[in-house]
Amino acid sequence: MEKWRKVASDYVFKSPFGNLRKDKLVLPDGQLIDSYYVNEYDDWVNAVVLTKDQHMVLVRQYRHAAQDFFLEVPAGKAEANESHREAIIREVREETGYISDSSPIKLGEFYVNPATQTNKVITFLFLDAYQAFEQDLDPTEFIDIHLIDIEEMEKMIASGEINQLFTASAYYMAKSYFMTRLKEN
């Protein structure tokens, strides 16, 4: 199998939130696609933040595209010259005020939608987190902090109370991490 060959590329739109690119492509069998649209986004970071008493730190915020409120893991994107690890430490502290004395554990790095998007989400795990600061939110952020018993998370996902994909996948990555550690011990 061969990769698709790009013969032309133009930007339809550019913004600080992402770009929309239109590619002209030749498929392996010679077919031509005149307009294949690609969303260029920065990578995202998110984290499962667990307290010493096994509560998961979630944030609740309004998401305009879905026109609803969502319980989510803390998340964001890296700022200039910031590593993914540095970005998630900053985002967790800003959104929740929580920190950990140990370094975040990288759980995984996955493309969000490789058919039409360029970005990945990188998921971390914070252990023994504790609230050491007040929230330090951006002017457009309105975030409530929620502590959810880790034992309740699967029920909340199954019932649809938590219905944000990156939160569900982050939870299951953390669960897999803990299950693997149990088998090793």
From TrEMBL:
GO terms of biological process kind: nucleoside phosphate metabolic process; ribose phosphate metabolic process
Top-level taxonomic group: Bacteria
CDD domains named among the record's database cross-references: NUDIX_ADPRase_Nudt5_UGPPase_Nudt14 (cd03424)
SUPFAM superfamilies, alphabetized: Nudix (SSF55811)
Keywords: Hydrolase
Residues covered by the Nudix hydrolase domain: 40-170
Tagged with keyword Glycoprotein: no
GO molecular function: hydrolase activity
One cellular-component annotation, GO: cytosol
Presence of keyword Transferase: no
InterPro entries: NUDIX_hydrolase-like_dom_sf (IPR015797), NUDIX_hydrolase_CS (IPR020084), NUDIX_hydrolase_dom (IPR000086)
Cofactor(s) needed: Mg(2+)
PANTHER family, A to Z: NUDIX HYDROLASE DOMAIN-CONTAINING PROTEIN, UDP/ADP-SUGAR PYROPHOSPHATASE
Name of protein: NUDIX hydrolase
